[in-house]
Amino acid sequence: MKRVICLLLVLLMCCCSGCATTIITTIEEYENLFGNSKGNQNQKESDNILDSVEIIKNSPLPVATVRQRSSTASFDALDKKQQEIYKTISAAAQNVINSNIPLDNSPTKQDVYIAFWAVVRDHPEYFWLADQIGYVNKNGKVYFYLIFCMDENKISASKTAFNNKLLEIKDSILGQTDYQIALSIHDFLCESVDYNIKPNDYSIYNAWGVLMNGTAVCQGYAEAMMLLCNRYGIECVLISGKDSKGEPHMWNQIKLGGRWYNVDVTFDDANNQNFHAYFGLSNTDIKADHTFSPLLNREHIEDFTKNYFNFFVGDCYSDELNYFSKNGTLLSQDVTQSQKAIIYAVVNSIANNKYSVDFGFDYDAQKSGEFLENKYNIARCVNEINRHLKAHNLSGITLKSYYFTGNSVRMIFEKK
User: Fold this and answer.
1) What is the C-alpha to C-alpha distance for residues 387 and 52, in angstroms, rounded to an integer?
2) What is the 8-class DSSP label of residue 203?
3) pLDDT for 377-392, tens place per residue?
4) Whole-model pTM above 0.85?
5) What is the pLDDT of residues 165-220, one digit of tens each?
6) How far apart (Å, rounded) are the C-alpha atoms in residues 295 and 240?
7) Rg value, the chain, Cα
8) Closest Cα partner for 236 from 316, 306, 297?
9) CATH number corresponding to 73-148
10) Which of 82, 153, 159, 381 would bridge with 78, disulfide CB 3.0–4.6 Å?
């Protein structure tokens, strides 16, 4: 389910016409296109894209404060009978009771499964609970039994180890606002976890595998994101669906500033790099390569024994806290505005000793490469960046490479 990332070396850039290829191999070739990239003394001020760039030094973020909250989004979607079953199942899971647990009022198998999946969706902290439940109807009396994905005798010690791990990583989660904290959690997971399918290892599907083993598939990433968001007081839910290849997939929706946004940590953890193409997306944007599973009580669900439906889907309509909108790195079809955004962001990034910058595109993905494939756009940006860096007594840079992921690009620079 990982998104394939194409490494495009900027040293091989094509003209917009597509008829000719120019290979830019040295900084001198940039200089030949738009003068001395260290700052062209003869360049007219009127030719500058930006007259000046204000440097904003980033202050270190404080360690985030734990504000534990519980998720009830799935519970709230149930009817009263299913909610009572939910409470019984949740209590059994929490207390590690797994066999012959009676249920009142002889509920149907469908009600038991729906309640069980709601518990799974609301409680990623039950990492010992497998995605299976047993249903028994004996002479009209209904029982259920739970299935654990680890040795029952080791669960108590595993809980202690897991809680100790949460304390151990607390200094890695930074921020004061919900946005800062959620982004820090996202980045921590991308940087500390590897996507890895391990046969017969159930931990890749839950938060235990993420935090204790550092490996997971999409469900593990999403459950860890939800668990950590809940730990820091941020409302977060699991979303079921499919990726662009039609494969089952799971991601999150988080509530920031009173609005819901999509976050897909799995897709952003690509090729051992931490991207931000899927942080803060609207439903419209994420539907470009994600499909939502049916919604309980509103759409037809073929099989309730499988976890392929949603209890809740937020109305994610805003782009305000999209990573690129928030950071002023959203490029548009307006070439001049895009150049200004690149110059301002890169100069500030270099001033803060960061040599890679992520940019998003607010128009069709097919158009996203056109701006970057135009050597004149890139060369002029590099020239302008170096002029502003020189004005602030900072070392010049050259563009080393860039990566596309989703509808975004990461530009990587290095000192000359």
Assistant:
1) 10
2) G
3) 778 888 899 999 999 9
4) yes
5) 999 999 999 999 999 999 999 999 999 999 988 877 889 999 999 999 999 999 99
6) 10
7) 25
8) 316
9) 3.30.1370
10) 82
